[in-house]
Amino acid sequence: xxxxxxxxAVLFLAVSVFAGEKKREEVRKELDEKSKLExxxxxxxxxxxxVTGDFQGAMGWYDxxxxxxxxxxxxxxxxxxLLLGTEDYNGALQLAREAVAGNPANLWYKxxxxxxxxxxxxxxxxxxxxxxxxxxxxxxxxFYLMEASLYASVEKWQKAIEVYDRYExxxxxxxPASIEKIKLYSKLDDVKGASNELLKLINEYPExxxxxxxxxxxxxxxxxDKKGLQILNKLLKEDxxxxxxxxxxxxxxxxxxxxxxxxxxxxxALLSDQLENSFKVQYILKLILGRDSTKVTEPELDSYMDxxxxxxxxDLSIRALHSDFLRKDGKLQEARQELExxxxxxxxxxxxxxxxxxxxxxxxxxxxxxxxxxEAIKYFPEQPLPYALAGxxxxxxxxxxxxxxxxxxxxxxxxDRIQLKSQFYSYLGDCYYSLDxxxxxxxxxxxxxxxxxxxxxxxxxxxxxxSLLDQDLGKAEDMSSKAVMLEPxxxxxxxxxxxxxxxxxxxxxxxxxxxxxMEKTTEPSSVLYEHYGDILYMNGKKKEALEMxxxxxxxxxxxxxxxxxxxxxxxxFN
Length: 574
Hints:
mainly alpha
């Protein structure tokens, strides 16, 4: 039913355009009755085919119309529209011109011609068509805007301004047109023209102080500081609590490196109830992000935060900003307390939950990570990060089976976030390995490397796990070698590569990498000392090997069960 309605509407439009031709038909040679019937039938069939998407069929029927009446503007208009759709702009332009020539009063023909000219990048001629249309339809504001936009698209700024001047004569001073003219004058570096437009707005809307502020900003931008300051000081005299003006002045004096004036106006702006606190937060964040250009200092930023907290400590947006400042200063525990304060009052803000979880992670507080992740999942069960951090906290507590449950649920929520999905696979791989499900673990690691072949941590760990099992040592060597290439100064990765080479019985090369591992590691572990001892031993350096084994024994953690036999000299290497 809907399709039939659309078809009927389009047919009605076509009939209307067609009917508009009747007066013109009267001054042309009358067709005989049979030809007129055939023309009408062919034209309506052409419209029907066009509406149903059969453009080739439509073209055939329209061609038949031209055989009957070669001068018909309405048929040329229809064919021009079809050619425009197929990007045959030359053919469309010729027929659109002929349609307009045949019936200069028809608005639709001229609009099509302007469209085709625009597609052909014949912008000035298209603008002339719009100017002609405006001359006949001066109350249609969209045509003014189209003409001005086209001139601006080819950087004919002055021409665009002239169109807006004609628009203003028709409609009076309006904010949208004046703002566009100000932009255009700015492109021409015509400060007088831009200021005149702002003065028009100020006269038209005397209650709108923001136009005066914009005028002051305009003067500042063109190094007419005296005029700008006069305007802003005038505004402050009328309204001392105007926070926007104080911010303008703070920015101005910051640029001039007058810190006392900056501090004075920033304090007034931040304490002004006329400025929404959300705006103040965004302003300070903008200062932080643009520190290279604004040169705002850490003590200044901290003072702004103190001012806001002194008056608006109950505002949750201010407390959230305060938590950012605390984290910036390394005060993670205090930042956590701020975030918990916010969540006690507003639990439906996911970004606050995420910041809290990441802060707990930074604090290495596994209990906080777990408890808060589980709580976050209650409110945001579709977000994957809380599942990941709940899993990580359980992994840190060696509860790998429970961690797997969270991670398997979370990975289903990663959708097309490939890197996040890769992180879940990595965590699952570590869990499965710790649960002695090595086959599942290695499948997870393979999935990680399919997504990110340069995941250096997985390359290293996967290679090491394979070496411990004496499994796929060629693959292990490839991965450990790649890890060392990616991070050649990482002692752990050098140790893994040396150990894989040892397992492959490439002892001299293993010793080379093991020596590098010892040099790059500031605090070698017992495992590192034991590996070094084994490699030295297989390279015939038994005395040095014994020294390394004894050091490993002294440290006493994570050594192999065979270490005592190695020290006693009773262990037999395969």
